[in-house]
Design a protein that fits this description.
By secondary structure, the protein is an alpha+beta fold. It is 24% helix and 33% strand. The chain contains 7 helices and 13 strands. An 8-stranded mixed sheet has the order 1-2-3-4-8-7-6-5. Strand 10 and strand 11 form a beta hairpin. Helix 3 packs across helix 6.
């Protein structure tokens, strides 16, 4: 899971962070900036249990370096957490973060939430949030969370029209961003501690309840595409695909470049 992206120049990041607003929130230290290239890259220089929020990202990114539109009005947050003591638990980190996001948003009254493996949070079939996990140094991970709140990513990329959701469409009154951050980070802290103490298997049933109905999917691999029925995740967070012959095959996130729901 180690990121192939290099950390930015430490001195440049340190200078940037001197201009950040810093405050304590529920056991976390929060750093706030107006604009950064990527919150994950900047947060990669911070200690554990620190988080960075920016109003915008100029070079937001998703899996496999795909661009992520991070316009004003959204929540762009990166949290630094300790690496799990059990190596096998690392594969499930994006799913643990997805569970934290879903649990937090449920507290605010968001309904019809579900996950799309390995790192998307949806309302029905529209993407509300995404997760990106990076590892720049051996003892910690950076968990990036992008949440559409009042922003309109489809204005910047017409291909996203009818594919995105935002909190403003689901809630009559949107809580302050600070409250959303507080609840989300509280759940993330709680689940990271659980992951470290009990392993991914302790959260596997809760995560498998968030996939929704049975769906036929197509997986784009490096050299081929395969189809089958998505059958949840195993004890390591790997996708389980039931092929047309009835065999169950496990795939990790590094193997699957894209998952498309086709039924």
């Amino acid at each position: 899971m180690r990121s192939e992206v290099s950390l930015p120049n430490f001195n440049a990041v340190a200078a940037m962070l001197t201009g950040a607003k810093v405050f304590e929130l529920g056991g976390w230290t929060i750093h706030e900036l107006d604009a950064v290239n990527s919150t994950n890259l900047v947060a990669g220089t911070l200690p554990v249990w620190h988080a960075l929020r920016a109003e915008t990202q100029t070079a937001g990114r998703g899996r496999f370096e795909r661009p992520w539109i991070s316009d004003r009005g959204g929540l762009w947050l990166s949290a630094v957490v300790p690496a799990p003591s059990v190596a096998s638990a690392k594969e499930g980190l994006p799913l643990v973060a997805g569970l934290a996001v879903c649990t937090a948003l449920t507290e605010f009254g968001i309904k019809a939430l579900r996950l799309r493996w390995p790192n998307d949070v949806l309302v029905h079939d529209r993407k509300l949030a995404g997760v990106l996990v990076d590892q720049f140094v051996p003892d910690r991970f950076v968990i990036g969370i992008g949440l559409n709140v009042n922003n309109r990513p489809e204005v910047h990329d017409v291909k996203l029209r009818n594919h995105t959701a935002r909190l403003a469409e689901s809630l009559q009154s949107i809580p302050p961003l600070t409250k959303i951050i507080e609840v989300m980070l509280a759940w993330l802290h709680r689940l990271i501690v659980e992951l470290n103490d009990h392993g991914f298997v302790s959260m596997q049933p809760r995560i498998n309840m968030l996939w929704g109905k049975s769906r036929r999917v197509e997986l784009a691999l490096d050299s081929a595409a395969v189809c089958g029925v998505f059958s949840g995740v195993d004890e390591h967070g790997r996708l389980l695909l039931c092929d047309d012959a009835g065999a169950i095959v496990a795939y990790n996130a590094a193997q699957v470049r894209h998952l498309q729901e086709i039924e």
